[in-house]
Amino acid sequence: MSATPRKPQAVSSSRKVVSERINQVLAGIRVPDLPYPVGKPAPDSVPDWRPLLFSCWTEQRDERVTQVLRSVEIEWSVRQVNAAYLSDRIMDVFLKTSGLHTTLVSRIARLRFWLAWQLDANGAEAFSNALLDWLDNLQEWRGWSDTGGRSARVLLDQLDSLVIAVSASFESGSVDSVEDYCHQWLIDREKRETQVGRLRERLLETEQGASRQRFADQVARALIGRALTGRNLPTAISRFILNDWYKVLKQSVWAEGSESELYRHANKLLEWLVWLGDPALSDRDRNRLYHVGEQIGDRVQDVWSRALDQGLPQTALDDIQAVIVARIRGEVPELKPALSGEGNFTWESQWLSVTPVPTEDAASYCGRWFVEGEDAREQRRFFFALLEDSSEVLWTNGAGVKLGLQAWPLFMADIESGSVRSLPSPTPFGDVLSEAVDLLSKVCAKQLKQREQAAREARARAEVLRREKEEAERARMAHEAARQAEIEQQQAEAEQQRLEDEMAEQARLHRELEIVATKQVEGIGLGGWIVLTPETEGEDPIRLKLAVKISASRKFVFVDRLGLNRKELLHDELVAGIVDGRIRVLGSAAAFDDTLSRVVGRIRVGRN
Q: Which chain positions lie within coiled-coil regions (predicted)?
């Protein structure tokens, strides 16, 4: 329990901001190496992870939620993965900075399983006011140590109750059991704070009085021990000093301090009593022995009365006076070791050199927790106060119970050696939550900007690729069109060449026909017959014979069988008619007819 426990925090305006950022982180952050799903699963396909988290809590497993998610072959949703990461991150940071004992840290860290489930189910509503107040007030236990005592066991029992409350929450699907646990914890904390406050007040008052008594006792013992060590004295003097004068010395220190006149007189008389009783000291100056012996009785009575407010017992004074008289007479009484080693008289010389600790030196340590040892073996104690009279540190535990005392020089030696170290200032859970969520929110916003930038770049690249594809398609189509045009041009040129060749061939054949026809015409003698093809279908061919051949005008005159139906044809007309097939010469040889037929056939094939 802390010396200055925090009060439950009021609902701050920053909690609303934190809630908004938590929801943003759950939806938007992406952490490398976490098992995020591929694509966006359908809402009805998201697995129920409450049984898995409940089993981890029931087993009180000491591992992160993200490690549990990786250990099973299940595709979790983005929100579940982010809830697990956020729960781990917040709890890890809090437990590192809480200053709590390792045993408590391991117990509270397991709450991450329940917290991950709540973050996924309720978002920022998982951090209710009661839960935040409870986590903040865990600082009161930063001085707890696992001592095995009753006060240590009380806290462990309360944490056992937390296991039951969280298990009930998992089973019912409601947070009511956890909320009730937190409320009851805060009520018990107020009761503990009141009880511890009263206990500390009584403890400080008691220990301050005991410190003054202890200082006076130890100084008186140290003075007597220093004075009697190695001395052989009469039994009466030794007994008086140990039994009676010890009370005077102690009372003088307790009443007026080690710097007072009464203390100096009491200490001086102690030295004179030893000087008188030890012949090895007093026999060297007999005159002084007589002078001291004459006055010491009155001075002893005076100091005794001043210190104890009562007269010196007559029996004790008579024994001292008898020894003094014997010493003045020169008699040597029976001597025995003043500290024979018998009895329980102990003393420590360092009490004679105790110096007040400056207030500013002690103020820097007072009210702080210190720890000794490592890990589970560490023990914590609270610097409750510096007892000024004895310059001792009063150590207490979290419940305000005294743990012990330690001399200031020993405490400083432990600090310098590092065997005792101060616990760092704790960080409240609310601050850890706010800082962690703020940092993750910035990371999430940065990632969102990066994703938007990446999307813009992807769209730009897609647009560039589309344009390049369109340009390539246009170029391909242009190339194809050019190639097609070239092919068509080549085909046209080939066709033109074919036509030209055909025309040339026809011209050549026509010339051949004209030559053949010319020869045939020139070979027609008088009386030679020709056949004229009728111009209309259904009429019979007309057979004519050559009647007159006029060489000057190259004119041929034909008549029918009766010498009628005269028809005049010029040489060229006759040749053209034979070539066209409208006129056939009947008087030619068969070879000529065959040649003419073949030429005409080739002309027809060429035309087709």
A: 445-516
pLDDT at 376: 65
Give the chain's radius of gyration (CA, Å).
65
Per DSSP, the residues of 556-588 read EEEE-TTS-S-EEEEHHHHHHHHHHTSEEESSS
Please enumerate in sequence order all residues whose Cβ is within 8 A of that of 83, keeping only pairs 6 or more positions apart, or say none: 26, 116, 117, 119, 120
The neighbour count for residue 159, using CB atoms within 10 Å, is 14
> For residues 127 and 119, what is the distance between their CA atoms, to the nearest angstrom?
8
- The number of CA neighbours under 13 Å toward the Cβ of 99 is 26
Q: Which amino acid is at 366?
A: C
Of 92-96, 142-146, 273-277, 461-465, the one with minimum mean pLDDT is 142-146
- Token representation of residue 344: 């329980």
pLDDT at residue 601, as a whole number: 65
Pairing type for strands 421-422 and 232-234 reads unpaired
Q: Is the pLDDT of residue 517 over 80?
A: yes
DSSP reduced 3-state for 449: helix
In whole angstroms, give the CA distance from residue 87 to residue 95: 12
Average pLDDT for 217-222: 89
Comparing CA positions, the residue from 106, 119, 103 lying closest to residue 53 is 119
Over range 384-409, report the average pLDDT: 85
Q: What is the reported pTM?
A: 0.62
Mean pLDDT of the chain: 84
Highest mean pLDDT among 163-167, 196-200, 436-440: 163-167
Residues 375 and 377: their CA atoms lie apart, in Å, by: 5
DSSP letters, 171-235, are HHT-SHHHHHHHHHHHHHHHHHHHHHHHHHHHHHHHHHHHHHHHHHHHHHHHHHHHHHTT-EEEH
- 429, amino acid identity: F
3-state secondary structure 115-169: HHHHHHHHHHHHCCHHHHHHHHHHHHHCCCCCCCCHHHHHHHHHHHHHHHHHHHH
